[in-house]
Amino acid sequence: MTAALRPSSAGPVLTTAIGLIVLVALWEIAARTYLADLRIVPAPSQVVFSLFANFPAYSPHLLATGHAALLGFVWGNGIAIVLALIVVLLPVIEPAIARLALAINCLPMLVISPIMQIFFTGITPVVILSAMFVLFTTFVAVLLGLQQVDRAILEVVHVAGGNRFAQLRRVRLMACLPSLAGGLAIAAPAAVAGAMVGEYMGSTRGLGIAMVHAQASFQVDRTWALALIAATMALGTFVLVQGLAWIATPWARDRAAQIPSMMDVRQTVSGLQASLTRVALGLVSLAVVLGAWLALVTLLGLDPYFAKTPVDVWNFVVSGPQAAEHRAALASPLAVTIGHALIGLAAGFAAGVVFACAAKMWPRMDRAFAPYRVMISAVPMAAMIPLISIAFGRGIGAVTMVVALLTFFPTLINVMTGLSAAPQQASDVVRVAGGTQRQILFKVLLPYSVPWLFASLRIAAPNAIGAALVAEWLITGDGMAKYMLTVRGAGNFTATWTSGVLLMAVSFLAYILVSLIEERVMRRRNGTAGRPADA
Q1: b/e string for 275-286 if b means 16 or more Cβ within 10 A?
Q2: Predicted confidence band at 508 (pLDDT cuts at 50, 70, 90)?
Q3: Which three-class secondary structure state does DSSP give residue 307?
Q4: Contact yes or no for 416/360 (Cβ under 8 A)
Q5: Per residue in 189-240, pLDDT tens?
Q6: 59-261 and 338-529 agree in CATH topology
Q7: Residue 156 neighbours by CB under 8 Å, 6+ apart
């Protein structure tokens, strides 16, 4: 039995190894022949040589990013776990906390980072950004794990005299471990990405700022070597957390974790009651966000010259004497950023659906490319932006690629999950009737995966705004990134805060719009407003 299992277990490893060798060989040949004159893609041997030859110069940046990412990982996950536990003990506050977490996730980092650098010094702004990158994902993962518990078991604890805290301690904590492990695995590379984005905003050391300097001085080998270090760090943390989870949760090894990156409050009512409930939740969420904002500025005693309140933002764009001029100045760059986000979102979404369908129709191709998909998805986008700008220039193509990559991976994973979850009986019916694999794909698999398609859009739509913003800042120098850098340089902090609020509102509205369209589609498709859990 053991001997029989060895070939099947060694086959994928051997296929991956051979594929990797072939890929590196083709890369080496292309870089030294067809791409040699472009000087944008160095050969793998050149990247490795630069890595080893200059590693003493790279190591301080590696340690700086690693330190900030570790602190951000600990703080962000710690806060997320505490919030999830509070929500389970006090379910009435779940909608407000969930919407607040979503609002934090939609905050544009290009706006938050310079504001934090005004009030904090040293590594603190980088750590905060790293923590913000991981907080929401872990919060959702832990909350889902705590809530997805067999009600019969909870009833047993209740009948025995246990309260909510007893249910949490005896049942929920153990039940949420697999979901927690999945959330931490996603959070590990995200912490690295958050630290690198924070370093872009003014740090003196770190992989992010080192890559920017290498790109600006046209040191292509150095840029790729630093990107390789960042990718290795992100992938290494991902694999480490996954390995620890595999050891700590042996009962969940055969269960695929479904960890969403976005969450909304699901309603089972319809009509006027559903609309009123949604409006009420939106008002409560808005009140929570505004209250937290005002409390933060007031309780910390922040300098009003730098720290602006909701009243200041309102006067700037609505009721102030120059509000019309301010709105006109914001309209054009905002339209550019939204356009960049929409183009990249469409490209990445389409590519994700096509690749997912191809993987379903040709499983061998999927098995061959699965390791590379995991590796690339774990690479922080902050490490890829300088490489993209080298390869695609500084135009709309580079911005589209940045946003598309951010959209591509959640779409690919979600759609593959939806295609695999389709009932086998439906596929068998089409097959028995003489249908081809292509007909099964279009008549059964794709229609069934519609909820997962919308899940990927809800993940990607808000984040596309942030990706477009960072790409504009590092690549094109236009859109809202240019506006914010201009007003910040002029000391107009009211405009800076207003930009952040406006972009957060656009991201939040994108999420709500996708959710509303999804609800209508699913209601017409199933005759109900419900939908399966996010993939």
Answers
A1: eeebeebeeebb
A2: confident
A3: coil
A4: yes
A5: 888 888 887 887 667 788 888 887 887 777 878 888 888 888 788 778 877 8
A6: yes
A7: none
How is residue 90 annotated by DSSP?
-
Least confident of 20-29, 365-374, 495-504: 365-374
What DSSP string describes 434-477?
T--HHHHIIIIIHHHTHHHHHHHHHHHHHHHHHHHHHHIIIII-
Cβ contacts of 421 within 8 Å, gap of 6 or more: 448, 449, 452
Rounded distance, CA 384 to CA 208, Å?
Answer: 10
Q: How far is CA 222 from the centre of its chain?
A: 27
Flag whether pLDDT at 88 surpasses 50: yes
Is the CB of residue 115 less than 8 Å from the CB of residue 500?
yes
Q: Tokens at residue 464, please?
A: 């596309």
CATH class of 338-529: mainly alpha
Q: Let me know how many helices (H) and strands (E) the chain has, helices first.
A: 24, 0
Percent of the chain with pLDDT over 90: 7
Q: d(Cα 104, Cα 90) in Å, to the nearest integer?
A: 21
- Short-list 345, 339, 334, CA closest to 479: 334
CA–CA dist 237, 241 (Å, integer): 6
Q: Which residues of 126-137 are buried (b: 16+ CB within 10 A; e: fewer)?
A: bbbbbbbbbbbb
Residue 480's nearest CA partner among 108, 202, 114 is: 108
Domain boundaries, the chain: 19-53, 59-261, 338-529
Q: What is the pTM of this model?
A: 0.70
* Three-state secondary-structure class, residue 301: coil
Q: Which CATH architecture has domain 59-261?
A: Orthogonal Bundle (1.10)
CA distances for 408 relative to 56, 217, 321, 459, angstroms: 35, 30, 44, 11
